[in-house]
Amino acid sequence: MEKKIFLSDKDMPKAWYNIQADLTTPLPPPLNPGTGEPITPDMLEAIFPMNLIEQEVSTERFITIPDAVMERLLMWRPTPLCRATALEKLLGTPAQIYYKNESVSPPGSHKPNTAIAQVYYNKISGVKRLTTETGAGQWGSALSFACNQFGMELKVYMVRVSFNQKPYRRIMMETWGGKCVPSPSPDTAAGRSFLEGNPDHPGSLGMAISEAIEDAVTSENTKYSLGSVLNHVLLHQSVIGLEAQKQLASIGKYPDVVIGCAGGGSNFAGIAFPFLRDKINGKEIQVIGSEPTSCPSLTKGRYVYDFGDTAGMTPLLPMYSIGHKFVPAPIHAGGLRYHGMAPLISRVFADGLIEARSYNQIETFSAGLIFAQTEGFIPAPETNHAIACVIEEAKKAKEEGKEKVILFNFSGQGTIDLPSYDAFLSGKLQDYSMPEGEIEELLKELKKIA
Amino acid sequence: MKTGDGRWVFPIAHSPSPEVIVEVYCPQLGMLIGFDYCLKAQNGLPCSNTYGCWKERVDVAAVLKANFTDEELAKVFNTVPKSRLERIMESVSEAGRKK
Fold it and tell me: A199, A268, A422, B83: which could join A262 in a potential S-S bond, CB 3.0 to 4.6 Å?
């Protein structure tokens, strides 16, 4: 039994997989509600280079990875496929659990898979400078790393509350040469307007987006970069699943279940889409997206093609939502209305190709702790959603007595998110009683093994 | 929480007032966030995920009703939050006007 399955550099996939080529129902274009007409590529050209826009709308099944991109990806790719033997032992499951370890990249997550590609395509388009926004800094640090690789200037607008609380992400960005400022900032008209009302404004992701876009649109030779949601981002992440297919095949395995956490959708798509191609072509395989109960875009939503606000003034992608006409009973639907899922993920969910599960923060951090205390790696908090689902599936396999092969994407490491673990371990995140809970039982078992 | 005998216990939290510093992991920002931030996250109005993120710990409806008008709450909770691309396209239009 091998603990780690490697691919040699020469076996690295030479092309990305584009699921748009295999969708039974093509992805409808995003609409401008002002005109009811699709948003055209030229509307996106203000912020993205045309070569990435072409990828955004491409239906070509495989798109060759350029040599310059491949050269950079080879710094940490192919990533190892690891078997979680200690976790299997703890769970007492007949299931074989494999994880694709994307945490081995320099910034510690799957994000540079698309950051490297995006910077390259901007570079060959003559772009000299990029802007982006970042919440906790995972995307900002990945893009900073990628910009450094290609000699591209970068400015990151980081939500101020995060900028103040997570200095290590800022330091990572600056170490790779990126400029990181707290948002709202005095550097843009949008930022100044927010600061006028409150000089200590903690910021929000929406404000940071406004600043990064304004900077890109109003500066010379500058474009904007986004690390999730868009089709070309998901395309670049397909290298994860393509490698996993080769690695599993090399040991004569094929997964019964593929699992990834689904926030903006890029890491889930990365592990899942190459396997969904097999499923579309008749293979029996279960593919599960795991998401937070607080923002259950897939598990509680429905597929709509709808306006984004009551006035119907904003363009909207076809995504899962509860629709703008919905009026919640006093205040009950806030968490059901998160609107951040990638359109391609929404599409494959609507087509019945994937299923979704949701887990609360206690379940996910408990799962992360179990993983850290068995396999050693401390997962990023979002990765914990996938691990919670893996544990559930492995226990189900035990109940059914089935030797399932479970594959999941270990999308990032959590050493820069240790304050979250500290909050969990000190009881600050705990929100309900689980004295008889399954996670507790597992932790007790863990103590016996240790 | 880990007790003296090494057991893990998850006690039921009581509803804090908005001033009490209690945190949840924000799936949008990817970090720990206090309730006070969520209540003002959208230009002084609550984040539309406030209910989903806090409902197990706080009587969210009571806190919101005590701190915001019906119109303000309707503005947040009777509209679908904008997707990332919606926000981007909106910002492009806005920035284009400033150019």
Answer: A268
What is the C-alpha end-to-end distance of chain B, expressed in Å?
54
Contact across the interface for B52 and A338, Cβ inside 8 Å: yes
| A245: helix, strand or coil | helix
DSSP category for residue A334: G
**Mean per-residue pLDDT, A295-315:** 44
* Domain spans, chain B: 23-98
The dihedrals phi and psi of A85, each to the nearest 5 degrees, come to: -65, -40
As for the ipTM of the complex, it is 0.79
Do the first three CATH levels of A81-107+233-449 and A112-226 match, i.e. the same topology?
yes
Q: How far apart are the first and last CA of chain A?
A: 22
Residue at A203: amino acid letter: G
The two counts, helices (H) then strands (E), for chain B are: 5, 2
Distance (Å, whole) CA A148 – CA A73? 14
From CA A187, how far away is CA A208, in angstroms rounded?
12
Report yes or no: A347 and A317 within 8 Å, Cβ to Cβ. no
Say what percent of chain A tops pLDDT 70: 84
What are φ and ψ of residue A198, in 5° steps?
A: -155, 100
CATH class for the region spanning A112-226? alpha beta
CB nearest A310 (choices: B7, B78, B91): B78
pLDDT band at A340 (very low <50, low <70, confident <90, very high): low
Chain A contact present for B20, CB below 8 A: no
Locate A138 and state its tokens: 């995972």
Burial of A6 (0-12, 13-18, 19+ CB in 10 A): middle
Assigned CATH topology for domain A81-107+233-449: Rossmann fold (3.40.50)
DSSP per-residue string spanning A253-293: ---SEEEEE-SSSHHHHHHHHHHHHHHHTT---EEEEEEET
Residue B16 touches chain A, beta carbons under 8 Å: no
The answer to whether residue A314 scores a pLDDT higher than 60 is no
**Structure tokens of A269?**
């798509």
Phi, psi dihedral angles at A414 (to 5 degrees): -110, 20
Rounded Cα distance between A85 and A82, Å, is: 9
Domain coordinates of chain A in residue numbers?
81-107+233-449, 112-226
At A17, the pLDDT band (50, 70, 90 cuts) reads: very high
The answer to whether residue A164 neighbours chain B at the CB level (below 8 Å) is: no
